[in-house]
Amino acid sequence: MADKTPRINIPPEVRKYVFDRNSYQCQSCYKTDLSAKTLQIDHIIPLAEGGSNDLSNLQTLCAKCNSQKRDKIDPRFRRLFSD
């Protein structure tokens, strides 16, 4: 297992950037929530698996999809980070 990256609070301006970049849309089920009330910031590669807090590792997921993903690596996004 890779070294776990420490969890940090994501600054509001970074959260806004990720929401804007992802068009306020869940990147798994593609539901849009312009209020962002049901959207969460997710680490594509979980911190527990060595993922980073870098913008390229952040995505928006709705609460339902994020709870289903938990701390697993979603194979649909792994290609973005392959060596």
From TrEMBL:
<feature type="domain" description="HNH nuclease">
    <location>
        <begin position="13"/>
        <end position="67"/>
    </location>
</feature>
<dbReference type="InterPro" id="IPR003615">
    <property type="entry name" value="HNH_nuc"/>
</dbReference>
<keyword id="KW-0255">Endonuclease</keyword>
<keyword id="KW-0540">Nuclease</keyword>
<dbReference type="InterPro" id="IPR052892">
    <property type="entry name" value="NA-targeting_endonuclease"/>
</dbReference>
<dbReference type="Pfam" id="PF14279">
    <property type="entry name" value="HNH_5"/>
</dbReference>
<keyword id="KW-0378">Hydrolase</keyword>
<dbReference type="GO" id="GO:0004519">
    <property type="term" value="F:endonuclease activity"/>
</dbReference>
<protein>
    <submittedName>
        <fullName>HNH endonuclease</fullName>
    </submittedName>
</protein>
<dbReference type="InterPro" id="IPR029471">
    <property type="entry name" value="HNH_5"/>
</dbReference>
